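Ticket #303: bound-state structure for manganese (II) ion.
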Amino acid sequence: MKNIETPDWNEVVDKAKASFMGVALGDALGATTEFMTSREIKVQFGVHNQIIGKGWLYLKPGQVTDDTEMSIWMGRAIQDSGGWDLSAIAEGFADWMKSRPVDIGSTCSRGIKNYIVHHRLEVPPSQWDAGNGALMRMVPVALYSLGDEEILGRYAVEQAHITHNNPLSDAACIFFGRLVHRAIMGDTLNQLQTLADDFVITHPKFRYHPYPKNSSAYVVDTVQTVFHFLFSTASFEECLVSTVNQGGDADTTGALAGMIAGALYGIQEIPKRWLKRLDPKVSSEVPMLAEYLVNHSPLSRIS
Ligand code: MN
Ligand code: MN
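RESOLUTION: The complex was predicted; output attached.
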């Protein structure tokens, strides 16, 4: 049964790969300017547009951080358990934390310890847990739920609550998943912007026009930053470069911009010089995970 709205499957796989690679590239590019102000970046780099590592974490060129790593560990957990198994995902996060990652956010760390010590898959609701740590790892969820928005909503919130149980975080997780879905299905930048403008009517905290120019790890600041630069640029490269040059939580805003821009513009638009620089372990595993996830999504069963 061929759904007429379904794009060519090769195109779906291509955009899924570009979305997951976009996370890794935005993370690797943005980690250099994480916690800098846009003014400091300008003084030091002019425009920061090369994957060179360093930053406050003293990374190697092409090295990724928690944003990409948590996404990869979640993708592996889905693949290894052959389905959506929240315990397997939490177990993956625990293994990741035990692997002594280069960076880990405090809310993620607390949530993962909550699982390790108490075997709980959900932290209690908290108005303070409105960081972007659950949002930054949404790409495997978006790809694996492709074709079913109800499943997206459930998976997005379930995985989020392992570490972040907060309505703003939940809303952002679901909506970013939706943007990835729509971009893979062929929506244009203008169509995505219409969706985002509808989203901010129902969730006015996320209003991004005029852009408040805060790019912190607070999920509202993060979402506004990604929306602003996604909708004011016209290519993958321009979108990611503009985003990470705003500074702040630049690896995470970069990763999220890359997630949407990858799904929107596709693999052909990703600068070759960035691909060459990315950690080879990441650039070989990420496309395979992305392909597995969409090939086992609800859409794969109706296409
Ligand atoms: Mn990070
Ligand atoms: Mn970050």
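RESOLUTION NOTES: The mean pLDDT is 97.
TICKET STATUS: resolved
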